[in-house]
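Standup notes
- DV: blocked on the single-chain target, sequence here:
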Amino acid sequence: MIAFVTSIGFSVSITTIVSYLVVERRAGLKHLQEVSGLRRSAYWIGNFIVDYLKMTLIIGVTVALFFIYDMKVKTAFIVYLAFPFGILPFTYVTSFLFEEDSAA
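- DV (later): unblocked, structure below
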């Protein structure tokens, strides 16, 4: 039950990350930043840091709730802290599956 509830919460946060990347690409904001002189590595590193901080906040609240309600998952926080390093690159790659000029 715990895994089901946390997976729903994390999937919502991942969806917002992917939707932001797709909307940003459709609006041409990434291209505008590249034309202005921003390197791609700086763009993706900046995105990763901001998205990691968002995920860390969500994970922190989740782990705090585990301890507050004494759910007996003392080692789950290790898995949750490693989660963003696996899911964020995957979401970035997945965002390229969406077409740039599809209908809104």
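- Follow-up: The mean pLDDT is 81.
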